[in-house]
Amino acid sequence: MLADKIYQDYVTALKAKNKEKTSFLSFIRADLQNKAIELKKDKLADEEVLTALKKLQKRLLDTKESLAQSQRTDLIESADKELALLEEYLPKPLTDAELLKIIDETISQAGASSMKDMGKVMKEVNAKVGVRADAKKISQLVKQKLTPK
Q: b vs e for 111-121, b when ≥16 Cβ sit within 10 Å of the residue's Cβ?
């Protein structure tokens, strides 16, 4: 399980006295524990862990964006390191070509032809790709496909 791997990496980082990694993995573990408490579970399934990690990734990216606007290079470097650590636990994101293929298949299966069908297509595509693609990117690509030219 992914939560167990995070714990093992945390213990390894503690033993290696890697303060940055230990601190960030501790933060991730606390976030996962809070999610488990919120869902009233002892342990999260891998899918739930991935969802929580994806939300954390989005928060870090948003933070990095705001730091870039305020020109805080020291904190941007820290955010980059945290994002790199986090990406070790997330599945490899889909390429644009793979995502477009899934969107095209979904549109043809659903018989979608206009923007009215966007919700139906989005629901199906999100179910197929899970956390391997950003919802904002999916939305943009679906709009492009469903908008008449």
A: ebeeeeebeeb
Same structural domain for residues 78 and 123? Answer: no
Q: How far apart are the first and last CA of the chain?
A: 46
Q: For residue 140, what are the domain limits?
A: 96-146
What is the CATH number for 79? 1.10.1510.10
> What is the domain count for the chain?
2
Q: pTM for the complete prediction?
A: 0.74
Task: Look at residue 15 and tell me whether its pLDDT is greater than 90.
Answer: yes
Residue 149: is its pLDDT beyond 70? no
Cα 145 to Cα 114: distance, rounded to the nearest angstrom: 9
CA dihedral 24, 29, 32, 33 (to 10 degrees): -140
Note whether 76 and 117 are same-domain residues.
Answer: no
For 29, the 3-state DSSP assignment is helix
